[in-house]
Amino acid sequence: MESAQKQKIAVGADHAGYLYKADIVQWLNRNGYEVLDFGTNSEASTDYPDHIHPVANAIESGEARLGIILCGSGNGAAMTANKHQGIRAALCWNNELASLARQHNDANILAIPARFVNEAVAMSMVQTFLETPFEGGRHQRRVDKIRCA
After folding, report:
1. Which residues are known binding-site members for D-ribulose 5-phosphate?
2. Which of 2, 61, 89, 118 could form a disulfide with 109 if both were Cys (CB 3.0 to 4.6 A apart)?
């Protein structure tokens, strides 16, 4: 697996996810990841697509390997990211889902519902998501069928 020091992780959140995002960015920096932070940078009301599309663009372009996005329910963030053809954003609310999203679906963005998980769960999911490899094999065949032509 690629070392953390070589991985760029794109992050973005609206106002509901800002506080968790700030802590996630600090954790990523402490653990040797390079962070592309697309905001928001306060709790002032903002529109989640303004911060989620840049995360998806960074992954599609190869500028970042994986992404972490947050909004209140996680749904709006995941829906926005999944409009991009090269994105497989997974809405997760526990470690098992975060792990399976990587193992079976090769998810490249973790969507966190900031108003429905506590910060410890969010941080644990981030670590699980980043450290879990895609299993490939039969799962690759399925992932190959996700993208619309």
Report:
1. 14-15, 72-76, 105, 115, 138, 142
2. 89
Structural domain boundaries, residue 57: 4-144
What residues in the chain have per-residue pLDDT under 50? 1
Annotated active-site positions, please?
71, 104
**Distance of alpha carbon 74 from alpha carbon 90, whole angstroms:** 9
Residue 8 counted as domain residue: yes
pTM above 0.85, yes or no: yes
User: Residues at the annotated binding site?
Assistant: 14-15, 72-76, 105, 115, 138, 142
Instruction: Tell me if 67 is assigned to some domain.
Output: yes
Q: How many domains does the chain have?
A: 1
Residue 28 inside a domain? The answer is yes
Which residues does residue 35 pair with via DSSP β-bridges, in sequence order? Answer: 9
Q: What's the DSSP call for residue 41?
A: -
